[in-house]
Amino acid sequence: MSKTRKKVNLANFTLRQMMEMEACTRCGECIAACPTFTEAQSEDIHPLTKIAHIKDYWKAGHLGFLARLFGARTPSEEDLEAFSKGVFRCTLCARCHEVCPVQIDTRALWIAMREQLVDWKIYPDRFNMLRELVTTKHNITGDDNANRLVWTQNMDHVPEGLARKKGAETVYFAGCVGSMFPRVYSVPQSLAQILERVGEDFTTLGGEEWCCGFPLEIAGMGSEVQALARHNVESVRDLGARRLVTTCPSCYHTWAHAYPRILGKPLGFEVLHATELLVDLIGRGKIELHPFGQKVTYHDPCDLGRTSGIYDAPRRILQAIPGIQFAEMADNRELSLCCGGGGDAEMADPELTAAVGKRRITQAQETGAAIVVSACQQCTRTLGEAARKNKIRIKAMDINEVVWQAMQA
Amino acid sequence: MDVEKGLNMTVFWIVHLIMLGVWALMMLYFLSVWLKSRVPGVGMRASRWRKLGAAIGYVLGIIFSRRIWPLLRAFIVEGLFQGRLLRKNLLRWSTHMAVFGSFLVMGVISTLTGVVVEFLPLLGMSAEKVAAIPVLGQLFHADVGWVALVNELLGLVLLAGMILVLYRRYVKRDPQLRTNPIDNVIIFLLTLIAFSGIFTETFRLLADYTTANGVFAPAATMLSPEKLPPSLYPVWGPQWGFVGYALAWLFGLIKADPSVWQVVLNVVFWLHFLIVTALLFYLPFSRFAHVIAGPVIVAYNTMLDGESRRSRKGHGVPRPAA
């Protein structure tokens, strides 16, 4: 095994992260909580190993004689390959953060490790394609971005003013998955119809909606996100909107938390996830809900729950629907299991993420619910896929679809 | 004999302070490397001095703001007393506290003892005057009853903690633990520290209180007034260090000459010191860096978590029944 000359660029990490790596006690709490390790049983994948390795690597590269004296080892190319596999097969669900006795901000740390691996050019090839598509086509599928409103094509009635209506109060940011994946077209369709029904003055960015940059940010290619952020924010400002609403928790997180940091200033308009808007509309009596006689359970999307702290709004929406029976899954809220659809991990190891999804859909089935509701089109897609592949009789629906159905019943 | 013992301790303190100085330099070097990382609010290409300045400024900004209270609370509850671990698992919390807590308290007592025994006399205070300082002055000698008892209990708690560590890792084989070869070495050394501490105490008692006939017969008057000022006679009570005392009594049956015990003491004492120092030096390169970084990070991150939870919309909404 040949030793590499690759040295960790410490500028990929913050001072806080340097301390967090030292603060890791290697207690192993994260191992028990890691959904991908549970399925893969591979030592390279769990948080404890990842932290131990990167610590070893930076010390070997930066502490010279002292590192050699105390046994920090220079990695071989094979070591780095294995390390990369572990880092990129993580769904970034941040469950490890919730159980960590020293509260390490693990998700940010995994992203920093990915940035380092991108610097070293040791990452799955498919990420190059992702970068290419997002930076040139401005979406994750490579479709013509002018077709952003393709999801409206099979609607009986398309709400007016959907394409960049100047002066609209609200901009609906549908996101790449909602806009481009036919299986979840009904998510943006539902929200658009709800907003129209309640008389909200809303529009979309149409062909000017660019990928929010989340897939690149979490791939460790965050430097590419600035141009996307600038374009999207300017597009919303051009319309003069007062707020932006998303159905995708990852887009929401990027708009609400990453953009102000990347641009170095507040956005100048409010950012809401659809569940926050819906719970407000229900609270103000603007949405009339009819009985929905089904037993449902709710899956917390990682980027809405653990990453953004929104747990109550979706539950309050569901509980506001008459006749609905609600059951929590064994793992919920802060300790919710991942559906497998996050962290770009599906691009690195689809079999593994399918296994993660299977565990979650099985947990949903155990509640006896007929429907597993989520507030994320990606989770809905992943859970639906898991149910179909594993022949589990439970339907996956987005919360916007449930609300829209309850409005019509 | 007393002159020799005094010289021995002076050599110890000189070596100890030099080693601590070297360790501090090593930690500063370590910090200088850390400062190659990003410090928020400072450009990537900023000098390490600027980054250090920004980091210190940030810390001072917290200290002189209302954020200091939640930070202090988190430092004590989560950092020192490991509240999260306690809520999770009593056995693991007990193990952690037994090892970490006893080392921490022994470290504090050792530092105070160093001040009382070595530093204050350097300022010209006589042994009698130092010993007259309320409570603190009684640390002047390890055979003051309560000092002996506290040290003994801490040693036993540490030993109990190490037994729990050994049990969990090697007998119970907790599946979430990962043990690498260096962990084995460190656990062995920590256990050795606990044992060698007890034996250091045992052989010190034998060296101090063995008569010329080789009989272990402790009496306060066997020590010189410089070592045990007469004002401490009423509180003198080596028997409170009951394990070391019992072992000393047992070894005393050999009836060896006090000079023999002195040699044995020197060997065990320096061995104990060497292991502690070696571990201290290895600390920043091992998982045991968490001893320093852990309480700081858990306090800071807990404070941030609390702040972000409070700032989230819908805070305070009761959880729906499961």
Characterization of the model:
The complex is a heterodimer of chains A (409) and B (322). Chain A is α/β, with parallel strands linked by helices. Chain A has 3 domains: 10-120, Fumarate Reductase Iron-sulfur Protein, Chain B, domain 2 (Orthogonal Bundle); 126-280, Rossmann fold; 281-408, Rossmann fold. Chain A has helices at 15-23, 29-33, 35-40, 47-62, 64-69, 77-88, 95-99, 106-120, 126-137, 175-180, 186-197, 214-218, 225-239, 249-263, 274-283, 312-320, 345-348, 350-366, 377-389, 399-408; strands at residues 170-173, 202-204, 243-246, 270-273, 295-299, 325-327, 371-374, 395-398. In chain A, the strands form 2 sheets. Chain A has a 4-stranded parallel beta sheet with strand order 2-1-3-4. Chain A has a 4-stranded parallel beta sheet with strand order 6-5-7-8, sandwiched between helices. In chain A, helix 14 links the parallel strand 3 and strand 4. In chain A, helix 11 crosses helix 20 and helix 18 packs across helix 19 (377-389). Chain B is mostly helical and 322 residues long. Chain B has 2 domains: 41-80, no CATH class; 82-297, no CATH class. In chain B, helix 1 runs parallel beside helix 10 (258-282), helix 3 crosses helix 11 and helix 5 (90-122) runs antiparallel to helix 7 (145-171). The N and C termini of chain B lie far apart (74 Å).
Entry summary:
The complex is a heterodimer of chains A (409) and B (322). Chain A is an alpha/beta fold and 409 residues long. Chain A folds into three domains: 10-120, Alpha-helical ferredoxin (Fumarate Reductase Iron-sulfur Protein, Chain B, domain 2, Orthogonal Bundle), CATH 1.10.1060.10; 126-280, Rossmann fold (3-Layer(aba) Sandwich); 281-408, Rossmann fold (3-Layer(aba) Sandwich).
